[in-house]
Amino acid sequence: MTRIVSFSVLSVVFLDAVIGGFVDSAADIASAYDFIVVGGGTAGNVVANRLSEDPLIQVLVIEAGGSNERLNGIEMPFLLAPAFDTTYSWNFTTVPQPGLGGRSLPFARGFVLGGSSSINGMIYSRGSAEDYDATAQLTGDEGWAWDNLQPYIRKASLNERWAEPVDNHPTSGQFNPTVHGLAGITSVSLPPLAKALDRQVTQTTEESPEFQFNLDTNSGNQLGIGWLQSTITSEGRRDSSATSYLGPSFISRPNLHILLNSQVTRLLPASDESDDDTSIFDLTDTPGTAGPKHVVTAKKEIILSAGSIGTPHILLHSGIGDRDELSNLGISPTHHLPGVGKNLTEQPAVNNVWLVDSTSNDPDVSGLPAGFFTHIGFLRIPDNASIFETVEDPAPGPNTARIEFNSVVVDPISSVGSLSITTNVLTPISRGSVTLNSSDPLDDPLIDLGLLEHEFESFTMREAVRAAQRFLDSPAWDDYIIGPSEALASVDFKNDSQLNAYVRKNAAPALHPVSTAAMSPYNVSWGVTDPDLKVKGVQGVRVVDASVLPLIPSGHTQAPVYIIAERASDLIKLAWNITV
Ligand SMILES: Cc1cc2nc3c(=O)[nH]c(=O)nc-3n(C[C@H](O)[C@H](O)[C@H](O)COP(=O)(O)OP(=O)(O)OC[C@H]3O[C@@H](n4cnc5c(N)ncnc54)[C@H](O)[C@@H]3O)c2cc1C
Ligand SMILES: *[C@@H]1O[C@H](CO)[C@@H](O)[C@H](O)[C@H]1NC(C)=O
Ligand SMILES: *[C@@H]1O[C@H](CO)[C@@H](O)[C@H](O)[C@H]1NC(C)=O
Ligand SMILES: *[C@@H]1O[C@H](CO)[C@@H](O)[C@H](O)[C@H]1NC(C)=O
Ligand SMILES: *[C@@H]1O[C@H](CO)[C@@H](O)[C@H](O)[C@H]1NC(C)=O
Ligand SMILES: *[C@@H]1O[C@H](CO)[C@@H](O)[C@H](O)[C@H]1NC(C)=O
Ligand SMILES: *[C@@H]1O[C@H](CO)[C@@H](O)[C@H](O)[C@H]1NC(C)=O
């Protein structure tokens, strides 16, 4: 790779000509900043916080969505509501998924300050140590290995702050304090009302060797069933990157600027930087656009943190991607990088529902709150499963799960309530993509998740659903579970084709897409960024968000995103000799 293209200028469209909360008007935007962070989401706000620790460094965050303020006051158990409020979502729809019988599915991404951390399920799950070690091996950078990331994972004053659960119940025996940070920025806590289904789950782990109790599934050794940890404060409120990393003591920094309701359309080559770079263009004559256009310059670096959909979308509209595919759309290629938007990896999930007796005399289960997660399980399918005769195991090692259980009591109010165990296939083999539908940057991209396309995923999902039934077959549940819900009741669990049909009909995305701007070793032609997260063959642009993860973590993605964003911030500071 010889050609180096340098980008330092961003083209921004104010979506509704309203310039949000923090930077008050277009006139307040300087023509240049040291760093411009594109996307005030989970990762972007970490980077903005860390870089602005040096008061001499000017940082601008540009976020397409609006303020998260209205989400802040929402308390348990309604914390999940934002996930269903389209006002805070990009409202994407996938292309038809062959593995799901041709269904197209809604695909939420945060469209608000805090990004997906403002609307997600708040599950805090790091994956296994082997996930990180595999990434280090794949990229050739030992800095991404589990042991070497420890300072970023848990050291005091870094990303994780352990919080007492809202009802202050004793938490001993529910997590391992030695694997957590105590004085970080984002709160992590155990569920309140800890008695909910406690007896049933604990008894199941005692009765069944298949479902061993794990004191802390975030220790690097994730296998087993443990108490769920969530990004919730001691006051029972969501802790997103907007409430934590942009909390009051940070947002008041005079060198940290946040611009809301403004969508970055493309990166412009540095040579296009005009003297008149504060000028505002009217773009209303361009189809699909709204509001004035603005161009702003990064003196040091542009940090793309627009997420696994947004980041490749911006790169492609900037002409960075597969040369031929861009030319076919009428976009002039500026840098041939065929990996952009490719290799999208997403976990399929099925919400399996059983009917429960809510009038049970058991005091533990009567009056359980709705929509409440209490435990999480990370399980393998047997190593001698027939699928491995023909398919190479995608799990990175023997201590990594292949399937996940997370459960939620959906409706305990009526006399027949329901309990669901959501089963995820954690390490799918199928790959999807983010591609462009048109040359208009305000058009949605085409999102193909490749869900359940490979036989490995249908095999593993069948085993996951069977494992969930075995879990509830434990005597611990006898007085509570009535039987499978309608969707499951007609399925013969021994019959693969019937389970396949059930899975195809009911699977949905876990909302954990990664790898669309994946890291790869230095000096290889595949992948999108180098291990230091700089876009290959391009100067002045780094990617810091879920899209750089070359392998999907065997868990959820929020914690890994916080972790990589912390290390990325240090890499950037090191590169620019920022020592504060
Ligand atoms: C509904 C939902 C539930 C989830 N539940 C969980 C969970 O319980 N646990 C878990 O670990 N993970 C969960 N996830 C996944 C997790 O939240 C994400 O993987 C993670 O937050 C992604 O972080 P990110 O920084 O890569 O992107 P995001 O946090 O999505 O940030 C990207 C930001 O960039 C902005 N942006 C995009 N394009 C542009 C542009 N052109 N110009 C300006 N701004 C732009 C977006 O508006 C957004 O604010 C969930 C995700 C969703 C959507
Ligand atoms: C999603 O839909 C809602 C409701 O229609 C809308 O308010 C919001 O702006 C949409 N989000 C995007 C990114 O278009
Ligand atoms: C996808 O990733 C694999 C490595 O995991 C790599 O070999 C391949 O080239 C990538 N595909 C593209 C189109 O970049
Ligand atoms: C896998 O091994 C277990 C225990 O040794 C055995 O009971 C089971 O039949 C084996 N399964 C297959 C598919 O070989
Ligand atoms: C892609 O473009 C076509 C033609 O304009 C349009 O019908 C379709 O809805 C677009 N797809 C998406 C996902 O926006
Ligand atoms: C599995 O179910 C399908 C569809 O109901 C049926 O046609 C098939 O005979 C069943 N297979 C076995 C082995 O029972
Ligand atoms: C990549 O290749 C260039 C040119 O061949 C070389 O100078 C550089 O040291 C290589 N980088 C790494 C990290 O191997």
Give the full name of the CATH homologous superfamily. FAD/NAD(P)-binding domain
β-strand number: 25
Strand content: 15-25%
User: How much helix, percentage-wise, in residues?
Assistant: 10-25%
| Small-molecule binders | flavin-adenine dinucleotide, 2-acetamido-2-deoxy-beta-D-glucopyranose
Mean pLDDT level: 87
Outline type? globular
CATH class: Alpha Beta
Task: Enter the CATH topology name.
Answer: FAD/NAD(P)-binding domain
Rg over C-alpha atoms, rounded to the nearest angstrom: 23 Å
For the termini, the CA-CA separation is 34 Å
Please tell me the CATH architecture by its name. 3-Layer(bba) Sandwich
| Spans where pLDDT lies below 50 across 5 or more residues | 16-21, 272-288
Number of helices: 12
Domain module tally:
1
The main β sheet shows up as: 9 strands, mixed
Which class do the helix and strand fractions yield? alpha/beta
Question: What are the main properties of this structure?
Answer:
signal; alpha/beta; 12 helices; FAD; seven-stranded antiparallel sheet; binds flavin-adenine dinucleotide; nine-stranded mixed sheet; FAD/NAD(P)-binding domain; GMC_OxRtase_C; binds 2-acetamido-2-deoxy-beta-D-glucopyranose; flavin adenine dinucleotide binding; about 575 residues
